[in-house]
Specification:
about 230 residues; Methane Monooxygenase Hydroxylase, Chain G, domain 1; about 5% strand; transmembrane helix; membrane; magnesium ion transmembrane transporter activity
């Protein structure tokens, strides 16, 4: 194999293997996170998801750039022929882009190398597309998981808001009862203090009124679809 092809293949092989190693390192980690989420929402798990997503974005970007470079190179026969004539006494015709060599044998060898280069680039393009496609699929899964986590957190916040609203309604009803008790607690004569049944009647009325007020407010909020 000519030295130029060896350099090209060594560079492509090194780059592709580096991308494949990074993908093999990230893929099990993402798969493990997808199994535990969204049931296990902890700070460490969410941080691992963020780092994994960042690694996938970077990996997909690099694989996409390499993929596009290989596609552009395969679609440009002139560039491939320039690689073939390196180190040979050959030139490219500016009009027809045909190879012109001083020795006919060199032209034949250069044409054979052109096919070898195309096959070489197509081989690494397939590997790069596989790596890029897998990185994109994992990234889509991570993004879907983030959406699921966001929906889960929104649902939890809604439940907390409902509980807070119910507590506020209950607090309001109890406060009304405390207002009535405060009124009767003033040191002013109302002539009710002389009756033995007044205390129990007032206490019962406040309790019944607070419970009734709570359920009335609850039904109102349900009808308005606030709860």
């Amino acid at each position: 194999m000519p030295f130029q092809l060896e350099v090209v293949e060594a560079a492509l092989l090194s780059r592709i293997q580096r991308l494949e190693r990074r993908l093999m390192h990230v893929e099990p980690r993402v798969a493990a996170l997808l199994e535990v989420l969204p049931n296990r929402l902890t700070g460490d798990v969410l941080e691992q998801l963020r780092l994994s997503k960042q690694s996938l974005v970077e990996l997909g970007s690099r694989a996409g750039d390499l993929k596009q470079m290989l596609i552009d190179l395969l679609e440009d026969p002139h560039e491939i022929r320039r690689i073939c004539i390196m180190g040979r006494n050959c030139t490219l015709d500016k009009v027809s882009d045909d190879m012109e060599c001083a020795v006919p044998l060199e032209k034949q060898v250069a044409e054979e190398e052109e096919e070898e280069i195309e096959m070489l680039l197509e081989n690494y393009l397939q590997r790069c597309e596989s790596c890029h496609g897998q990185a994109e699929r994992l990234l889509d899964s991570a993004r879907e998981m983030e959406d699921s986590i966001a929906v889960n957190l929104s649902s939890r916040r809604l439940e907390v808001s409902r509980v807070e609203l119910l507590l506020q309604v209950g607090t309001f009803c109890v406060a009304v009862g405390a207002l009535i008790a405060g009124i009767f607690g003033m040191n002013l004569k109302s002539y009710l203090e002389n009756n033995t049944w007044a205390f129990w009647a007032t206490t019962g009325g406040i309790a019944v009124g607070a419970v009734a007020g709570f359920f009335i407010m609850y039904k109102y909020l349900k009808d308005r679809k606030i709860l």
